[in-house]
Amino acid sequence: MGQGLWRVARNQQLQQQAFNENFLNREQGRRLISTSATNLNYRKQIQGGMDIYHLLRARKSKDEQGFINLEMLPPELSFTILSYLNATDLCLASCVWQNLANDELLWQGLCKSTWSHCSIYNKQTPPEFSFRNLYMQLDEGSLTFNANPQEGIEYFMSHGILDDSPKEISKFIFCTRTLNWKKLRIYLDERRDVLDDLVTLHNFSNQFLPNALREFFRHIHAPEERGEYLETLITKFSHRFCSCNPELTTELGLSPDAVYVLCYSLILLSIDLSSPHVKNKMSKREFIRNTRRAAQNISEDFVGHLYDNIYLIGHVAA
């Protein structure tokens, strides 16, 4: 009994000593880390002066709290900070730093990053021209287009932003990502002249056929149902793909008609493999057999690679 109590007391004493040693070791480690960080910051200040972190924490006075006054920084640094803001935040920043946030270079960058091509960019602008006002007009025109495409294009033309030319309109559409794709599809279906110029802006050189078709449908969205408009799109794509790859089409025996057949086969295969309603998926052998019946000059290896691409990557017109 006495020996048992002695062992319990001895174990408690050993556990307390181990706890104290671990605690002291942790405290010493924390002090070493804190000392090292302080010395590192001190070395940075001695060697290179205040770094960017301390510069951004600068205050007008020691007692002042809040955001840094950008006017205290070098102009290059202030403009770099403001260039990360969107239009709404930049307008809010202009309430505090009016001269900086209203700078034309900032608003010019916002315009060209959202609408990369406008006819007005290549024109000589009047002295009172403002890129901030242009941004507001471009945003208003885009919203108008997404409600009524024809009125949106007319808005851009009436304000001198776009020239009344199919080529200029197609470049604007090609370089803009703020337009609603459903409204854009309706507009292109009505304006086939703009669609023709839009297709020529694509470069499919040295691209695998399914990848080129995906890129094409990312800019010109496919209709939800098969019909005359889809046939028109595939026809225009087939001719453009062959014109961009004359050597490839010669080696593989591809012609616009053969590419047209392959595109339709790829679309149907994409639907078959991705649809949850299709239980019996088309096999690679079935795809090769069905495709070569319509395009006999195409090799089995090439058609097999097409199947593998759709199977691994997915839909071409999603």
From TrEMBL:
Residues 127-313 form the SEC7 domain. Gene3D superfamilies: 1.10.220.20, 1.20.1280.50, Arf Nucleotide-binding Site Opener,domain 2. GO terms for molecular function: guanyl-nucleotide exchange factor activity. Residues 67-110 form the F-box domain. InterPro entries: F-box-like_dom_sf, F-box_dom, FBXO8_F-box, Sec7_C_sf, Sec7_dom, Sec7_dom_sf. SMART domains: Sec7 (SM00222). One of its GO terms (biological process) is regulation of ARF protein signal transduction. This is F-box only protein 8. It comes from Geotrypetes seraphini (Gaboon caecilian). The lineage of its organism: Eukaryota, Metazoa, Chordata, Craniata, Vertebrata.
